[in-house]
Specification:
Alpha-Beta Plaits; 9% strand; 5-stranded mixed β-sheet; alpha+beta
């Protein structure tokens, strides 16, 4: 069966799901789950993604993900590749962790109930799997989803956004709105737990499991037009995304050089592994999705396979000069021209 197209555009919303290779676990313990969330946080910082909901099960995960820029493919490549490396290193393993292709269901987020349906579907995963029960706090008893963070703003990571989900319930992110959200999902949990076929507790869920989009007929027509365009321009999700990422990375380079007081002329005179170059490379890797080869070429740092050594040196820096420069770069928030 041919693979469905990857449709990428600015502002797209996806339900992303991926299972472990051969159905095996991708999270062995709490440390693995914390590692995945830290990797997801870094991916959001690099790509500008907004996560509206997530859940980590044992052998798979779900994300409700918005991409302000058309960079799902590049970001997912980095997210899953980086987590796989970290998982394998921690468990002394090698090879693939995830199955060959993640699912990315396009979600109509502007009108109708579709966004709310997917948000509920993700948050109710622990109930469908019978990981929770009403007597033990329901979804609040499962810590590896965005549900607890929805109810506790102080515990909410900066990359998780709740406003659109609350808006679907006609409330805002205040105490009353959080109570409405909690009560809404409490009732949905009861429906799921009372069902002999919990995966069928909502008439829309079959479309989430089997479809390639969830939305109105108008939304489908819009997507089909984009598929036709993508068929005519093979670079739509390849070269165009690469061009965007490189343009973004160039902005980060310029800002990084300015913060370090470096000129292009000075950059050319520095050794390949100079701290100044390593600091800028560290910033670019932290904030963009460009490959190491691009960074090494742009900063004149020699072989791309040495770049990780230079940036790890910055990550591990404890001396006052390097650490202070790294922390100053980490606080930069504006990279636009």
């Amino acid at each position: 069966m041919p693979r469905g197209p990857r449709i990428e555009y600015a502002g797209a919303v996806y339900h992303v799901m991926c299972r472990g290779d051969r159905g095996e676990d991708v999270f062995s313990d709490a440390d693995d789950r914390r590692c995945f969330l830290a990797t997801l946080a870094a991916a959001c910082l690099r790509t500008g993604w907004r996560v509206h909901a997530y859940v980590l099960m044992d052998n798979h995960y779900h994300l409700l993900l918005e991409t302000p820029e058309p960079n799902l493919v590049a970001g997912m490549r980095w997210l899953q590749g980086t987590y796989t490396q970290r998982y394998n290193r921690r468990h002394a393993l090698g090879g693939h962790l995830f199955q060959g292709r993640y699912k990315a269901l396009l979600v109509e987020a502007g009108v109708g109930e579709y966004f709310a349906v997917v948000s509920d579907y993700i948050h109710l995963n622990p109930a469908r799997a019978r990981y929770v029960n009403a007597d033990q706090g329901g979804l609040g008893g499962y810590p590896w989803s965005s549900y607890p963070a929805f109810l506790a703003p102080a515990r909410r990571p900066g990359w998780l956004t709740v406003d659109r989900t609350f808006e679907c319930l006609g409330v805002s992110d205040h105490a009353r709105g959080r109570r409405v959200f909690r009560e809404h999902l409490r009732m949905r949990v009861e429906e799921v737990l009372a069902s002999d076929r919990p995966w069928q507790a909502d008439r829309h869920w079959a479309r989430i499991r089997r479809g390639w989009y969830i939305g109105s007929p108008t939304f489908k027509e819009y997507l089909l037009e984009r598929i036709e365009l993508q068929g005519k321009r093979q670079s739509f999700s390849g070269e165009a995304v690469q061009e965007h990422d490189e343009r973004d990375a160039e902005r980060v380079v310029r800002v990084g050089l300015a913060h370090l007081g470096l000129s292009e002329e000075t950059l050319r005179t520095l050794p390949k592994g100079a701290d100044e170059k390593a600091l800028v490379a560290w910033l670019v890797r932290r904030r963009t999705a460009v490959p190491n080869a691009w960074i090494a070429h742009r900063l004149r740092m020699g072989r791309a396979d040495c770049l990780s050594l230079y940036t790890r040196r910055i990550d591990a820096a404890t001396d006052r000069v390097r650490a202070k420069a790294r922390d100053r770069l980490a606080r930069i928030t504006r990279f636009r021209d």
